[in-house]
Design a protein that fits this description.
The protein has helices at about 20-25, 45-55, 65-75, 90-95, 115-125, 130-140; strands at about 5-10, 15, 30-35, 40-45, 75-80, 85-90, 100-110, 110-115. The chain is α+β, with helices and mostly antiparallel strands.
Length: about 140
């Protein structure tokens, strides 16, 4: 399970050092793709396969399903972790999702997210004040 947030910097080759707290859960093969609210999502292989099974269960005859499948899966890249525990974020994703040198890595249960620090700060500013009300509403019947 992934949790916590960690501030890091990408190097000149867009490589990111995976925070030590998150390394043990990741495995050798990773998949990076479009996340939500401007983030990039990184899944370990088994969790990515779970995500694919969810998409596979959607009816392709539905335009909503097709849109989700096409947009999310067209953004996927397979990643390897190098000997010093870094991943290289593809340049195409860096540009498309406006990922800056200063990033925040966030653990989100079954995957990790990479945010530009400025986007993460903006996200917290916009959402943190409503955290308690949102939590109460969402979790009251769980």
């Amino acid at each position: 399970m992934f949790f916590g947030s960690f501030e890091h910097s990408l190097d000149d080759k867009n490589r990111l050092l995976i925070p030590s707290r998150l390394r043990g859960e990741l495995g050798a093969k990773l998949f990076i793709m479009k996340g939500y609210e401007g983030s990039l999502a990184i899944y370990p292989e088994a969790k990515f396969e779970n995500y694919l099974k969810k998409l596979e269960s959607l009816p392709f005859e539905s335009k909503l399903s097709r849109d989700i499948e096409r947009i999310s899966l067209s953004s996927v890249f397979e990643l390897d972790i190098d000997k010093v525990n870094r991943i290289q974020i593809p340049t195409a994703l860096i540009h498309k999702f406006k990922i800056t040198k200063d990033v925040v890595v966030v653990g989100v249960i079954d995957h990790i997210e990479v945010w530009s620090k400025s986007k993460w700060d903006e996200y917290l500013k916009d959402n943190e004040a409503e955290f308690e009300a949102k939590s109460e509403e969402l979790l009251k019947n769980v």
